[in-house]
UniProtKB/TrEMBL annotation:
It comes from the Bacteria. One of its GO terms (molecular function) is isomerase activity. SMART domains: SWIB (SM00151). The lineage of its organism: Bacteria, Pseudomonadati, Pseudomonadota, Betaproteobacteria, Burkholderiales. The keyword Magnesium does not apply. It holds the Pfam family SWIB. Residues 13-89 form the DM2 domain. This is DNA topoisomerase III. The keyword Isomerase applies. Keywords: Isomerase.
Length: 89
């Protein structure tokens, strides 16, 4: 007989609102939001401005707003979280 698994509770660290730096605020807005929401908003921006590399969709091409955040012309989606973390308090 299988028992029903307990409902997962979100990790408090992921749900804590964090304040973006001025560089990040230019992309996602100045209000403090949880880390999960920051990632979602950045991906919304990337998709809206069609910034994924057409040849390799795992790479993100920087535009004028993302360049100061990334520090280079292109990053992989795996680098994205690390780079964004440096801009959250």
């Amino acid at each position: 007989m299988a028992t029903k698994a307990a409902a997962r509770t979100p990790n408090a660290a992921f749900m804590k609102p964090l304040t973006p730096s001025a560089t990040l605020a230019a992309i996602i807005g100045p209000e403090a939001v949880p880390r999960t929401e920051v990632t979602k908003k950045i991906w919304d921006y990337i998709k809206k401005h069609d910034l994924q590399d057409p040849k390799n969709r795992r790479n993100i091409n920087a535009d004028d707003k993302l360049r100061p955040l990334f520090g280079k012309e292109q990053v992989s989606m795996f680098e994205l979280t690390k780079l964004v973390s440096a801009h959250l308090k």
